[in-house]
Every structure is written in C-alpha cells, then in structure tokens.
C-alpha cells in the first residue's frame, strides 16, 4: 500500500504487521473458547470438586480422580518433614535422598533443594488443597505461570487423607519462615528497563543482565547462561532490543490507522457478539426492554388522558430509576468482559501515537507503557503489546 502522508510504499514494511493483526482476530476467537473452559474449571474449584490430572508425590489417583496414599512414597514424605524439623537443611535432605537413590515420582533418583522445598510447602500433605496456585495466561501463547495475586485462589479443607498432621505441617512452615528471615536476601536488587521483561522463546526462562569484559551490556537466557546444552538461544545485546523497539514504534505509529483502528473494530464486534449472548446480559436487556415498553404505554395512556399527570410522572420516574440501575448493571457486565483490557490497551496505544508518532532513539518510558513482554528468538525479537497484539522485528 502507499501512504499519502508519507509518500512511500510500505507494503513490504508492514506485511508482518498486517499478518499479526489478522492472526490476532482468530486468536481472540480461540482465546474466548479457552476462557470459557477455564471458567468451568474455576467453578469446580469453588465447590471443591476440581480434580488434578496428576497426583503429587506420595499419592496416586483413584478411579474418581481422588488422592490415595502410596505407602512407600508417604514414608519418604514423612522423613522429609521429620528431618527438616530435627534441624537438617533442605540441601542436606536432598543430598541424602539422592545418595540413597530414593526414586522420585517418575522413578528418577535425582533430588534437588527445590523439590524438597515443594514438598515442605505443599498443603496437600496435610489433607487440604489450595486451588489455582498457577494459572494459564489469557493471551497467546498460553503458558502456566505462578499466581501472584492476579487470580482468585480457593482453599478446601480435608479433601483427602493426610500424610502428615496439620500440626507437623504448621511447625514446618514456621521453621521455614524463621530460616528465610535469618538467611533471606537483604540486599536490594537493582532493576533495569528490561528486568523481568525478556523471555526465552525456547525454554521460557527469563533473561538476566550481563556486562561483557568489553563493557557491552547483554541479556542472557538464564538456562543458557548456566549451561549452553540446556538452551540454544544465545545472548542478545541490549542495544539490539532497543533498536528493534524503535523500529516497531515507528512502523506502528505511522501506520496506526491501518493496523490499530481496524483491530479495535474487529475486537468490539467480537466482544458484542459474546456479550449479547451472555445469559445475565440477555436478562438485563429483556428487563430494560420491558421498562421501555411500559414507559411507551404510559405515554400513550397519558396522551389519551386515561391517566392523570401525577400518576404518569410517578410511574415514569420509578421506571427511569430502574432503567438507570439496569443500564449501570449492564455496563458492569460489559466492563467485566475480558475484551475491555484489549480495547483499553489499543486505545491507549492510539493516544500514545497521537502525542508522538515516531521516536529517534530508545525511550524507556514509552517501552514500559506499551510492552508487556518480549520474547527472544534466534532470528527475531517479538514484542507483546498492552493490547495483546504480538509484533516481531528481525534481529
């Protein structure tokens, strides 16, 4: 296509952006289906009927999905709690289990401090269950992430037979808290513009900041940094990410009317389609329609002088108050709809570009305002924007 304002052909420049835009439309359809499935799972969590697909170490699943104690593994779990409360460190316990070749859930005898810590902090071993410790992200690509308050959690007591008593579990938590307070990190960690923002496309690890001997700032996949055999994605220079963002900002800013505006229109249509089919919204719309019909009937009766002015005003005012409340409730349904975040993000992007269409150099504030996450590939850098859209630039 040719932009009149710029007088240049941007066909090749924006092909990937257009592809991303139309891919986003279909992604929203798939996302909507996935969200409906997750809502069903959340309902089961609320009433305590949710079942895991895999039992934790020490248990097996019965035919109904409930937990049955595995005697051999339960002994190991009790030993872990006992050793910890008797004074052994988590690292010591893990080393002893590994040396004794004690098999884990899948038969692997390799124990780590992380695995032992997981057992010590898992409430399922005292017979309770905390649901939604982790959750699946709403946007593509769907990923399981730790729930740090973004989603509601549901606690159910006595859902299955305990391996350790609630008192033993409570004492373990108190000891863990004391050790964390005693040995926990006290030094404040310095943060940078890209801190916790860069993610490895291959293993999902977060990139960490490094400075080479030559003074070059690079960001490295944590697993690749530990061992190159664990992940093949190599370091990316900070200047490379900055340059890619400047390019993306300028492309999207100059072509916002061809990219963002139709994207907003399509998401609005999809939102309204799902919104109007919601049972609660349908009922509210029916009640609003009934009240409007009543007002029309009252107006007709008043015109024919079948009712007096005082009665007409009284009934109409009552109906109008109900209408106002119903419309507020309807708007609340609309606001609770997941699409409002996508639309609000897209409108914010338009506002940003209206104030500053292009930039000459990297601006950290603009990056933080526009970008949720950056995924590093071997040949591209993919930016996930605040409206859920993902756009990639070549490295």
Explain how this protein is built.
With 395 residues, the chain is an alpha+beta fold. The chain has twelve helices and 15 strands. The strands form six sheets. A four-stranded mixed β-sheet has the order 9-13-14-15. The radius of gyration is 29 Å and the shape is flat.
Could you write a compact summary of the structure shown?
It contains twelve helices and 15 strands. With 395 residues, the chain is an alpha+beta fold.
Compute the average pLDDT.
82
Number of strands: 15
For the largest sheet, list the strands in their spatial order: 9-13-14-15
How would you classify the helix and strand content by structural class? alpha+beta
List keywords for this structure.
395 residues; alpha+beta; four-stranded mixed sheet; disordered N terminus
How are the SSEs placed, and which strands pair?
Elements: E1 2-3, E2 8-9, H1 11-46, E3 59-61, E4 67-69, H2 71-85, H3 90-99, H4 113-120, E5 129-131, E6 134-136, E7 144-146, E8 154-156, H5 166-183, E9 198-200, E10 207-211, E11 217-221, H6 222-226, E12 236-237, H7 238-254, H8 256-276, H9 279-303, H10 309-336, H11 339-355, H12 364-370, E13 371-376, E14 380-385, E15 390-394
Parallel strand pairs: 9-13
Antiparallel strand pairs: 1-2, 3-4, 5-8, 6-7, 10-11, 11-12, 13-14, 14-15
Helix pairs in contact: 1-8, 3-4, 7-8, 8-11, 9-10
